[in-house]
Amino acid sequence: MLSPMHSDYLIDDINQRVQTDPEKLIQEAETEYHRQLNCAIREIGSRRIVCLAGPSGSGKTTTAHKLKAQLEQTGRDTIVLSMDDFYKHRSQMPVIDGKPNPEVLEALEVDLMNEKLQQLLTEGKADLPRYDFTNGSRQDDAVPTVLTADGCIIIEGIHGLNEAVSRKFPQNTLYKIYISPHSGFQKRNGVGIDKRQVRLIRRLVRDYNHRNSSTLRTMDMWIEVGTAEDLFIRPLARLADLRINTVHLYEPNVMRNEAIALLRQLPSDSKYREMAANLIFSLEQFLPLPVSVVPTGSLLQEFIGKPKK
Length: 309
Known about the structure:
Blueprint: E1 9-10, H1 11-20, H2 22-44, E2 49-53, H3 60-73, E3 78-82, E4 95-96, E5 99-100, H4 110-123, E6 125-132, E7 137-146, E8 152-156, H5 163-166, E9 174-180, E10 185-186, E11 192-193, H6 195-210, H7 215-233, E12 242-245, H8 251-263, H9 273-283
Parallel strand pairs: 1-10, 2-8, 2-9, 3-8, 9-12
Antiparallel strand pairs: 4-5, 6-7, 10-11
Helix pairs in contact: 1-2, 2-3, 6-7, 6-8, 8-9
């Protein structure tokens, strides 16, 4: 159908497989994602720090915790350190173009994060912060954390490859991973969904189901997110030792119905109506699959809601 990286999947081929053997289609998608995780585990080896980055909607959280589980199966103590927990308090967020902007590196307490990393590596313990997104505040020293002498730290966040983090540590202790959907979906007539739209669909469904965010609010944030990605995140992909393609062959089929319903909730006078109409038309090209077909533990579970009864 295509190579697993960078090429676009053909919608007609996927739809045919949805009709004839959806179980095999789903299994192939899940197997391909886990094949890439296995490759990462082999290459990480004995390195102490894994820097995992990618744009919004890439599946960073799930990927980080799956890598943690697999490293622990090899006998290595592993912790996941979320860069989100090092956000500044909402009142201290940098203001860009008149609005607080959490997408830039300056929104993070980088010095504090490096201090905690150094403590974990040299002392084997540190009290890590926890960020509360409901009220925009960080509780310092909230989570006592212990790491064994050969343990591994997975640093997960949109700025995970930024050299403000990695330059503080010997390069031979680091392994850098960049994840994102690297493939889109196309019909032979050119209609389709590009890889950035794959992430937008994930965000629409996830933010509605898990973050109580309206379609309009998500669309407003998405414009700012895209600008920050192009400036601060995607250019650093060149620093990665490995790229993981997190797109799943069947995900538009699963998310189709809910994404279309959410896009139709936009007000009639919304500035996003044309964008939404084009995305709805593209989503309608996919044959639907029920959410219930998504396996427990799939990366897609990070985004979808619970199956409606």
